[in-house]
Structures are given as C-alpha cells and as structure tokens.
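ERR on first pass: missing label on line 2. Operator R.T. fixed the label and resubmitted. Corrected input:
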Amino acid sequence: MNVKAGSTLIFGSLRPCYTHARLSLTSSCRGHGRSASQAPKQAERAERTGFSPAATSKHDWIGPPDRLSNLRPIIYHIPENETPQERRLRRLRQETEDWNHEFWTNQNFTFSKEKEEYVRSQLSAKGLSERDEDGRKRTLSIEEMAVFYKHFLDKNIGRHASYNREWYRRNFTITLLMAKVALDNTWRTLTGQTRGTGREQGKTT
Amino acid sequence: MYKTSCSRLTGVWKCLPCDGLVGVSVQQKLIANAARSLTSARSLIQLCRKNQAEWITFQHLCFLKRQYVKSSSGLCQRARPKQEHVVSVLDVRDDSVVSQVQQIPALKPEPGTVVPPSDPTEPEAARAACLEARQWKELKVEYSDLPGIYARLSKLKLTALVVTTAAAGFAMAPVPFDPVTFLMASVGTCLSSCTANSINQYFEVPFDSNMNRTKNRPLVRGQISPLHAVSFALACGIPGVTLLTLGANPLTGFLGALNIFLYTCCYTPLKRLSITNTWVGAVVGAIPPVMGWTAATGSLDPGALLLGGFLFSWQFPHFNALSWNLREDYSRGGYRMMSVTHPDLCKRVALRHSVGLIGLSALGPVLDVTTWTFPLVSLPINLYISYLAFRFYHCGDRQNARKLFFCSLWHLPMLLLLALTCKKSRMPQDEASVAL
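pass 2 clean. output:
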C-alpha cells in the first residue's frame, strides 16, 4: 500500500528502533478507513500506535503511556477547514511530542542499560554471579546503587540542561499559539464569520 | 481511582504479549515472590496461563491492582504509614520486583533477540491492538470532572497545608483578630498557592510522566490542555494577589506574588539544574506564615521572620527524608537533589535544621512572640525529631528516612498549635491606656 510504504520510509529514517517495536502492533485494517485527504503522517501515527479514532470524532485522542518513554501519544484531530495557524500548531505539537518521546526513550533506555552494567560490574567485582541459588537476580544495596545514581546525574547534566531549555521554549510557544488559535476562533464565532476554504490546493500536512 | 490504577497497570502489563521473553521473566519473578502466599501464587499462575483475551478482565485488573500495583506504589513513591498485609508479600525491601518490571520495558528496543511466544504473533498483535484501542481516550473536557481535575492540578492538600501555616501566622500576630482580613488573607493565599502549583505542573509534564509518584496528574493524563491549565492558573492568581493586596495590604500582596514567582520560575527550573533548589523551596514554604503575619500587622516584624524560620528549618528534615527513598526516580528523571548527588550533605542538613528548631523555639519568648513555656512544651517534640534526624544521619536507610518523614508530618502542626497556645497575650496596660 502506498500509505504504508510511505510511512515506513519516513518512519524508518526518523526512528528505527521504535518502528520495529511498534510495527508488530499494526493490525491490517487500521488506517485504511481514512480519507485520501488525510495526511500520510496521520495514518503513519495511526499505524504506529495501532489505533485510529472514529471518523466522526471531533476531538484529539490520547493514548496510554508509551512503554519506552512513558509519555502518552496524542492523535490530533484535523478539522474540516483547518486554518494555517491551526496547522502550524498541530505540527508543532506533533513534532514536540516526537522529540520528547525520542529524548525520554533514549534516557530511560540508557539509564536501564547503564544500571544493568553497573550492577553486573559490581557483582563481578565481588565475585558473585548474577543470579543467586534460587535463580533470582541479585541486587545491590541502596547505598551501592546511590553511587550509580549520582554518577548518572553528573554525567548527563549538560544534556538535561539543554533539554530543559528546549522543552520550556517549545512549551511556551505551543501555549501561545494555542491561545492565539483559541482567540481567533472566539473572535470568529463572535463576529459570525465562517471559516475559509481551509487548506490551500494540493498542500498536505 | 480504579480507572487510573487499572490503566496504569494495563500500561505495564500490556507489553507482555508483545514480547514473550519479557513476559516469562516477569512472570517468573512474580511467581517467585508470590510463592510466599499460596493463594496469590495460585491465582497468578492461573492468570499467566490464561489466554490473553480472557486475561485482562476488570476483575483480574482489580486483583492485580490489589496484589501488585498497590504494593508497587507503596514501594516506590509515597510511603504509607499503615502497611496492609497484602503489601508485606511483595516486601518493601524487595525493590527488585518493581525495578525489574520497570526496567524491562525500557530494555526492549532489540526485537531480534526476542524469543517468539508460543502463540502465533498475529492474533496476539490484534489482541494487543484491541487492548490499546480500549484505553485511548477522547480529549474532551467533561464538565463534571473539572472540580476533581482542578483539585489535583492545584494540589489541594498541599494548598490546604499552606493556608493553615498562613492562618497560623495571622493568628500569632500580636494584634486584635480581624475575621474579615483573616478570610481575605486565607482565600488570597489559597488562590496564590493554586496558581503556583498549576504552573509547576504545566512546566513539568514530561518529567511527571516518568516518575511514579506524579504520573497520574491531570496534564500528564491529558484531562485538560496546557492552555486550560495556564488559564486556570491566571484565573486563580490574578484574583488571589488582588485579594491579598486590597483585602490585607500591599506588602502581603507583594509577598504572595513573590512566592508564586519563586516557586514557578526559580524552584521549578532549579530542580533540574542544582541542589540549591531545596533551599529556594524552603524559602517558598517559609513565606506563607510571614504573609499571614503581615496581613494582620502590615509590617515585617521579627516575629514574622521567626515563624518563617520555623517553616524554613522544618522543610529540610521533611524534604530530605522524603527524597531519600526516591533516589532512583530522581536520577532517571534528571532531578538534581541532595539525596542523589550529595547524600552526606543531605543527612547533615536534615540533622542540622532539626536541631535548629530547638534553638528557634527558644527565640519565641526572646522576640515576644510566645511565653517562656513554649520552648519547654515544644522541647519533647523537637527532641524527638532531632533524635530521628540523628538516626537518619547515622544510618541513612529507608526505614529511618521514612520515620523522619512521617514525624515531620505531625511535628509541624503540633509545633504551630503549641505556639498558638503559648502565644504572648497583649499587655493589659496597653488596653487600659487606650481606653483612657
């Protein structure tokens, strides 16, 4: 299918690991019900998350926390006559969500991996095997783990600081844009204007 | 409550069918732990053997919630004073279960190494997709839910505590009690606190999602949009500060605005940059009683600063003990807290300030805030918290940290109550001279 191939291509370049994990969840009939005017990205998200909202739904949908990043994905509703401002907002939100997801997936994965390595190295330094007699995994005491936690924080301080700055900037921008869109809509409702024809010819998201 | 626990639970458990290896090791772990209790082991084994589609029913979710999720929330986040019998099965000290489960989903991006499950992949994928579809929610604001959402957004319980400290500050001021000003100051403080908490949650959405303690907050769950949260904050903050300024005095209004600024623009970003956030947070906690006092008297007296000092010092045993048991979450979330980066300093500071409370209590009669009985009657509780802080300092383990934290929860209200009962009454000569 065109949409599927296109989405896999785009997706494959963006986020290889994530696509693999998620493709297994794709059920064959999802995403095909959408109209041709829907952006391929929307279908791609629907595929990625294995869910697509009912065509009559007028709202965004939020899903359960992602198991890698713990963030909840949102499928944004595209209104019939979406204004350019609304489209900019939706794109920005989607992009921020993807960026956030990537950061936290990486963070959680790195944390777990380094923690495992640390536990393994500490246990081997003590001459203990990874599992004890009952087959349970050995764990270190909280004080020994505290050394790792401190090390992890110190190692990543630069990355965290730059993520913070970027997140605050994006959050503000999104909120301001949301406020503008809300005010625009209110103004339009109050003055009785109708929306324009919406999208320009041939432009897709 | 059920909904959140179940969705959270299913969020954890839904990864199992996609990945047989994960499921097997988690199941093994759970079975190993639950073997201490026959009934739970039997039920767990039954559950694990059942077909996925039959597995996740509401009853099973509730069972699992009782058996596991509750205990896991007792393990990692807020420590509960009463531990139910069920919780003792998955012991508090046995972090391995929860950390194992939490780790495993994060370790999964290499599908090539996965052992395929015995069931064919396709029906499983379809089943998993069905499960996910069941949990997607429409982002539509339910007006009936709004009060609950706002309560959680503004951290209502914390706000109530803040208002209590402000009210105590007002009551301790050596002026005739004015109920109207008292009401204005209390409502104004409440609204300001709601604002600060809402903005804090607005800033921290991705971090809150990743910490167990905070992942059910309204913005994380998408119950309201960020714009809605900011609007709510403004709708509380502007009337709140105005009420403080006009209903009390401009100084109180200024302190309220300053507190909001300190909390949202200093403490919140600093949490991820430097350990000085704890000191800033202590100042934020100290300002409400000062505000109460200035609302009554209109000036920043030494008595106000003393009450602020009580709150400032109290914050350290309270927060340091709390953060001691959350070190893993803080580290993973990128929060720079003393308990993670400078554990010795953390324990030292908690002890130092617990002992400092004794000294501050002694200042009460010196500054004419309380009578001389106050340092005496408050000595037992101050000694007790200092003793617990010493135990925490000496052997910094989970138990001592938890004990210190719980002690701090009742210590502060007791201290304020004792101060109120020992409040220095205004001299009768003043009244006589005024009457004349």
